Amino acid sequence: MDETLLRRIAEALERLAPPVPLPPDLGAAEAFVWHPERLALAPVHKVARVDLALLQGIDQQKTILLENTQRFAAGLPANNAMLWGARGMGKSSLVKAVHAQVNKERPDSLALIEIHREDIRTLPALLNLLRGQPRRCIILCDDLSFEREDADYKALKSVLDGGVEGRPETVLFYATSNRRHLMPRDMTENERAVAIHPGEAVEEKVSLSDRFGLWLGFHNSGQDVFFAMVEGYAAAYSLPLPIPALRAAAVEWSVTRGARSGRVAWQFIQDIAGRLGLRLESQSE
Asked: How many domains, the chain?
């Protein structure tokens, strides 16, 4: 065969071959976003988060997740964590706040890597990229859940179980979800109704959440906790509003929203600050 033709074939094959991923520079930032199409981590130089002390009504969850993350940063055994429950109660905010707090205690010890729900199937590729990296990483998937006929949970299950290679000891997986078992209720009920062995049909899907060592539940807050959230934000940003007036306005705001949560409290504070002509330096929920 002609040498020129062979060279052209070789060049064409090189163009078709997937690019070799470059080792990530985990020292480039405190946080990153995973882009599977490029097998790359994009640095995030300013993370949208709030101080840990501003998260009210979730003291037990704060303590448990902070201690777990501190142990991980120190090179000690730690668990993957599932934060589940009511919307707007600070699940993802807690992960980001804990990450910042631990890095304050141990500078540059942890990198936070966000993976989007639709990219969960590429989790093994991300772990391969992180394998052998000295910096410890927390992978965060926000609002994780699976729908009917969705097989992506198998990739997550393999990671949580360890797989053949095992999860790198420098990597921990945190997820937030509005569903306790990550699957819709009608999906599990339908599996039970039509299966010859109902328990076995449901077990593989529902047991996915059991593979998280930590389960932290978040529930809708009462009025006292809602007031604590609002007053904590108001004090942190020095909003010049008397407590009685602040509470009255907060009650009215929560009634119009039909909910009392950390997200609603923060949105209320943004509204009040705007009406007072004041700027807020941080962003949250």
From this structure: 2
